[in-house]
Write the structure tokens for this entry.
Amino acid sequence: MLCIVALLSNNIDALQLCYEMGKGTAYTDATQRSFLIKTMIRAVDMNILLIAGILLIIVVSKINKGLVFVWQNITLFRWIGYLLGIHALVSSAINYVEKQASETFEGNPFDYQGVIAAIFVLMVAEIFAIGLRMKEEQDLTV
């Protein structure tokens, strides 16, 4: 199961270690333990992105049905933003641990793209909320 998660996450080092574990020539117990921990954290991270993707599909399907300014879309957008923020934190933690363990890791371990995406989605949610409030006020005045 863990090898499948490693394969899906495109982690070449994890696949190499998985192969060596299957042959019985893996490095050490500490390496196997860190492999299991990193793979489990990556699995959690992948599930976070999977849930965010499913929520995005739900929002798009509601918008296609003509349900644009409804509170459920705003709630879904906010959840997507929160999940992307959690993904950015988990991804940054993984990168930081890998930077500490690797001598050749270059760059900044912080996931700026994930944070920017989360902020953007949360801004879209607030824009939708303002639009919905304006729509409700307009419906009350007519």
About this structure: Residues 92 and 111 are 5 Å apart (CA to CA). Residues 2-141 form one domain.
